[in-house]
Design goal:
638 residues; Dna Ligase, domain 1; D-amino Acid Aminotransferase, Chain A, domain 1; 9-stranded antiparallel sheet; 39 strands; binds adenosine-5'-diphosphate
């Protein structure tokens, strides 16, 4: 029996495997890179071993460092998670050779299924997409074969994964260029430029089947997963049962998956991927010889723990005596939370996480640290809802997405909500082109008045009573924020009892604040809690509909600001105060001399960037100052 298991992975999947191990009574060892030193998954493991620098080749792909970590901690088993080394047959071999239990299928099976071309050639009586899987890799042969298949065709890397090395080709004149591009990408990503051709299926669905196989040759299917909501050929929403299958189609597709598992004597958990044509025909695409990102959907619908079964199977347990539900007992749906901006081509986003919290109403698999780094996949978490019906599961997922708080990076939570709310999605009528066809779902709405007000009041809370003290008490305090090209002034007039009148675009709002975190505001009688955090002048605000980054606009006149004069109230460099020309309360005009700082054997004149009144001096003559510190407060005149 396994007593201690090392997880050769990171993030949410590491954290998820740790949870099952704890439930089974198995100690865990996490491995981590520099970037992940403060990540949740490292803290939740029983032990953790540093394996190298942040770039994956130096850590999570470093076989030697991982095996050394296993031997130093006396781990007796290794779970590869998904991605990284999970489908490298030579890694599985090395793990087994080191005397560890490998949580996965036999290395030969990983190698066979890892080559889409060989996999297809090896299978019998399984429907395949019409295509070319031959050894002859010359352009002329591909041209001839593509003509036979008829355009459009798809060029794929035999070793491909994650949508890389893949090209859709509409006509013969584009084929050579696509072959060249796919070869280059495949060589770069997989070290193998072997290609294959497939007929490009129009408006297809991606349906996959979860299988489990034991060492006696018994293979079972645990239903299908519908994974057609994709961007850039990568899944973002998955569910089971698929709204597209009737029960006889479901039976047929599951039987095909079990047949594949039996033909290759598959052991452990695996996924057989199919493509479903609008006419109901399905074809084998490829097999993933590992746990999938979207496995929780099956867990939610079938009430099973797939990681626990992976471990039991690796320990030699037989599936024959087990009773699994014959079909899904509930509808389950997962959404993947990515640090990316749907409105700019799903560009990944990196940055410091100022705040992150998830709803406790549904299952959330996450493993965040303090920061989102450029080294790894931008997936941050998965939210999984299960309920008796599809509509209820979707509603629960939508609610949890609306509750999620993630400030400091751009993310796709609000976009996911818009997909869930789309009538075609709600009706279950979609295919893999859904997102491309629905460009209107990509962009967030413009900030509402609540967003502008919440940001202004969050800044007011941070500035404290000072903000008013400095202000002329009979005039409202003014804050200006910008969102893209839009700029808004928010005027705030205080009354008694934390009540204010705020004006935005000539509209007045009665606002009341409450001393809570996150900021609690009552606007015209409606109380709301909006998470707001800032990093310098960037203010992150989240609503259920969107998350925004607003820029605080300094009250200094634009011309003055552009001339860099704002800095003249700050020390330009480390030095010593040699002269002070003004005293508190004094009125000064723009460009009047305020102070002189000596630094690097030169005198620097600090002059007034605008007309105003000197409020406070922060230094005396003779004191030394650091670079960038505020030398004095100057209140602008009206
Ligand atoms: P990868 O291994 O890179 O993920 P797959 O072969 O699994 O590549 O395909 C990924 C996605 O690409 C599928 O889910 C589907 O959306 C699309 N796709 C793959 N093959 C075809 C095809 N022959 N016709 C149309 N779409 C396809």
């Amino acid at each position: 029996m396994i007593r201690k298991l090392l997880i050769a992975n990171r993030g949410e999947i590491s954290a998820r495997i740790i949870r099952t191990c704890r439930a089974l009574g198995i100690r865990t060892v996490a491995v981590y890179s520099d970037a992940d030193a403060n990540a949740d998954f490292v803290k939740s493991a029983d032990e953790a071993v540093y394996i190298g620098a942040s770039p994956a080749p130096q850590s999570y792909l470093n076989i030697e460092a991982i095996l050394t970590a296993a031997s130093r901690t006396n781990a007796d088993a290794l779970h590869p998670g998904y991605g990284f080394l999970s489908e490298r047959a030579h890694f599985a071999e090395a793990v087994i050779a080191a005397g560890l239990t490998w949580i996965g299928p036999r290395p030969e099976v990983i190698a066979l299924m890892g080559d889409k071309r060989r996999a297809k050639l090896a299978l019998k009586n399984i429907p395949l997409v019409p295509g070319y899987n031959g050894d002859d890799q010359s352009d002329t042969t591909f041209q001839a074969e593509a003509g036979k298949i008829s355009y459009p065709v798809m060029v794929k890397a035999a070793a491909g994964g994650g949508g890389r090395g893949m090209r859709v080709v509409i006509s013969a004149s584009d084929l050579n260029e696509a072959l060249e591009g796919a070869r280059r990408e495949a060589l770069q990503a997989f070290g193998d430029d072997t290609l294959l051709l497939e007929k490009y299926i129009e408006r297809p669905r991606h349906i996959e089947v979860q299988i489990l196989g034991d060492s006696s040759g018994k293979v079972i299917a645990l239903g299908e997963r519908e994974c057609s909501i994709q961007r850039r050929h990568q899944k973002i929403i998955e569910e089971t049962p698929s709204p597209a299958l009737n029960s006889s189609q479901r039976e047929a597709i599951c039987a095909a998956a079990v047949s594949i598992g039996e033909q290759i004597r598959y052991t452990n958990a695996g996924t057989v991927e199919f493509i479903l044509e609008p006419n109901g025909s399905f074809y084998f695409l490829e097999m993933n010889t590992r746990l999938q990102v979207e496995h929780p959907v099956t867990e939610g619908a079938f009430s099973v723990d797939l990681v626990a079964w992976q471990i039991r199977i690796a320990e030699g347990e037989s599936l024959s005596q087990q009773i699994f539900p014959a079909q899904a007992q509930r509808h389950a749906i997962e959404a993947r939370l990515y640090a990316e901006d749907p409105a700019s081509g799903f560009l990944p986003s990196t940055g410091t996480l100022l705040k992150a919290s998830f709803s406790d109403t549904i299952r959330v698999d996450s493993g965040l640290g303090d920061e989102v780094f450029p080294y790894y996949d931008p997936m941050l978490a998965k939210l999984i809802a299960a309920a008796p019906t599809r509509a209820e599961a979707v509603r629960k997922l939508d609610y949890a997405l609306s509750q999620l708080v993630l400030l400091g990076v751009r993310h796709n939570a609000a976009f996911l909500r818009r997909v869930l709310a789309d009538p075609e999605f709600a009706a279950g009528e979609f295919d893999t082109g859904f997102i491309e066809r629905h460009a209107e779902l990509l962009a967030d709405p413009q900030p509402s008045s609540t967003v502008w007000l919440a940001t202004a009041f969050a800044k007011l809370q941070g500035d404290g009573a000072n903000a008013f003290w400095r202000n002329n008490r009979y005039r409202p305090l003014k804050y200006t924020f910008a969102y893209g090209d839009t700029q808004r002034d928010i005027l705030i007039m205080p009354h008694a009892d934390s009540r204010f009148t705020a004006t935005l675009d000539q509209q007045e709002f009665a606002v009341r604040t409450f001393p809570e975190q996150p900021l609690s505001l009552e606007i015209d009688g409606i109380r709301c809690h909006l998470p707001v955090e800032h990093q310098g002048d960037s203010w992150w605000v989240q609503t259920p509909e969107a998350s925004y980054r607003l820029g605080w606009v300094s009250p200094l006149p634009v011309g003055v600001k552009q001339s860099g004069a704002q800095g003249s109230l700050l020390s330009p460099m480390p030095g010593q105060v040699v002269k002070i020309q003004v005293e508190p309360g004094q009125q000064v005009n723009k460009d009047d001399l305020l102070m002189v700082i000596e630094a690097m054997k030169m005198e620097h004149r600090i002059t007034a960037p605008y007309d105003g009144q000197v409020a406070k001096l922060h230094f005396e003559v003779g004191q030394s100052v650091q670079s960038g510190v505020k030398l004095l407060d100057l209140l602008p005149s009206e």
